Please model this.
Amino acid sequence: MPFGLNARPYQIEAVEAAVKENVIVNLPTGTGKTLIAAMTIEALSPGSETPALLVVPTQALMDQHKKYFAKIRLRVYVNTPAAALQALEEGVMPPPHLVVFDEVHHCVKDHPYVGICKFMAKQEKPYRILGLTASFVHGSFKKLHEKRTALEENLGAKTFVPPSFEQDPEKLPQYYKVDFENMTDLPLEKDVFQWTNDTLEPFMHLAPPHLRYAITEETHRSAYTVYCTLGSQGWLLYLRHGLVPIVQSKLRQKAEYVASKNQPLGGPTQEEMLSAIAELDTLQEHLQMLPGNGMISPKVRALVELVQATPGPGLVFVERKALCIPIKHILDASGVKALAVMGVQSMSDEARVRALEKFANCAVDVLVTTPSLEEGIDVRVCRFVVRFDYFSTVRSHIQGSGRVRTTDAKIYYFEQDPDQEIKKADLVVRTAKGEATELEVEKQCAEQTIDGAETIEELGPHQWGEETTVWDVITNRSYRGMSCATCGCRSKIISKKFGQGKKKSKRTYVLMQGTVECK
Ligand SMILES: [Zn+2]
Model:
């Protein structure tokens, strides 16, 4: 095996396991899982009439893999899952003797990966399954054992961590927590909606009447988030540069969907929709001239200072796409060359490809991006990663660490404690190995680190209503809290578990919206 000559012992262990039985190989990003796939394909393919099938979740990964396998001259059919399933069902592709699932953690619920597994299960000829992932956990850090079992059942495969694999501590990035002051005296949601509507009102006649709802809907979703996370300046930049492009991309997606379904009997055609969407350019030209200056939140100020002081290029991840473009402009204004990259719903493919190319060529300092970029795209030049928002998936920590390849790489968390995330990642690996207990996982879930006021009275003389669960736009997670019947301000209740087995809990309180003064 010419390309397998330099395989590491753990890679050989994985191939040996895959040759014997169906396995899900759980290894960190950047440890050569593609080589494991290639060696397994080579080992199992001689004498077989059909090529092995390699399925990957995205177009970008498909292109990357096709190039790799062409280079090593290995015969394999690479495709995205929906197209592969269609080819199998229509008989265009004969059932393969081996299916390799890249980023196999997707194989849950109604993902097309599951469809491929079901199709294969109906075949009479024997076949082999190989799954590859950096973390078998899909979604949040909860019920790891259940998730492992569900994935194994869907694939008919066992989770496997090569026994000789050990993370080289020299190659691990260094993690830091970024401290910043929280914004105080936050405005109420309804006030920000009012300011947004008042600001946009004089320009709305420039938009086609039937598209105005899309703009209101988008600001309703994001204006408050942007205001409270980035400050009034960030909110202004969002209205100037972020709003219309996001609305246009969303509508373009809708137009494409309509075209794909051959839907419009009497409704607008794709061409009509696209030309209406293009008319929003006029609105954009006016909005980008919006005058005024606002203030920048302490959190963004901390980001600017951090990026200015850290040698790039680097990635700034935000969970909410509305934040990407305003942050890009704030960074630009402070002398940092930044680009914003978002998923298909918020940015055209061409614009995304162009931005990624510029980043790969080190033509920009920073890429501000949503987690849609997390998977697959290999950003070898990256010297630091910033997690600006709270992220709820373990994958974000594990994948994000794999994004950086240089030995002096640094990872910064704004909302999370890196030590906790490292502990979680370690528990994922130990669960994959079958070493961690469910109790250990549960205990890790219960960790809490924020402090607040001892009594609710300290938050001011408000008329607190009932306790409810609401979404916190700043940290990007839900919380329990109460609203004041008089002024509409909101408090958050933090339950801190302590004592042996963390059985006791103590409550503290934080003001989330509004002021201590009840007005
Ligand atoms: Zn009040």
Remarks:
- The radius of gyration is 25 Å.
- Residues 462, 484, 486-487, 489, 518 surround zinc ion (CB under 6 Å).
- The first strand starts at residue 23 and ends at 26.
